[in-house]
Amino acid sequence: MHHDDVLLIDTAKATPAKYEALYRKYADKVFNYFWYRTGHDKELSEDLMQETFLRAFRHLRKFKHRGYPYLTYLLSIAHNLLVDHYRKPKSVPVNELPTDAVPYEITEDVYRKSEAKALWRAIQELPARNRDALLMYYQDGKPIKDIARIMNASENAVKLILSRTRKKLASHPYLMDIAAFAPKKRMYTSPRFLQGR
Q1: Are residues 102 and 138 in contact, defined by beta-carbon separation less than 8 angstroms?
Q2: What number of other Cβ atoms are within 10 A of residue 159's Cβ?
Q3: Rounded CA separation 106/138 (Å)
Q4: What pTM does this model have?
Q5: What CA–CA distance (Å, rounded) separates 93 from 109?
Q6: Residue 197 forms part of a structural domain
Q7: What is the dihedral of CA 107, 156, 51, 90, to 10 degrees?
Q8: Which end of the chain is more exposed for a tag (fewer CB within 10 A), N or C?
Q9: What are the E-state strand segments in 57-171?
Q10: DSSP state, residue 184
Q11: How many CB atoms lie within 10 A of CB 54?
Q12: Which of 44, 67, 91 is the last residue of a domain?
């Protein structure tokens, strides 16, 4: 764990209102984690982000430094929240996704806008676990070991998920005619649960 994270955590344990420094440091990254996994649903992403930090804050006193970044810990909470959210019987049909719901990294890799939309639709149709692993690896640039920790899986399991997901996408009907497809390597507000402390 980075030295400054250790200091921020120890400070927050002594003075809970100081947890805001960790929130400021990681809020955007946690929000983006949800943003790309909820079809760019800002309100839902914001709610899930707040819940992630609330859970981390509630368990702050029990938190122990285990050698991995605090962001990895936050994203493991976020991953579990997202899994729980998608287990509920409410999901957005692919045909109702906004037309601009295409992450810029995908747009850069695929030459025509329609191809990018097709790829994004194909990603949204993946099972949640596959989509999550794929986005963490390619969108967020996370190493396999961090993804494994977040998903509570072995590194080999994550590699297998990524391999199968790439194969599934390569043969997806949306992408069959896309020659360019190939796997390749906000404003800050104080967290609600800290307001009034």
Answers
A1: no
A2: 16
A3: 10
A4: 0.59
A5: 25
A6: no
A7: 70
A8: C
A9: none
A10: -
A11: 15
A12: 91
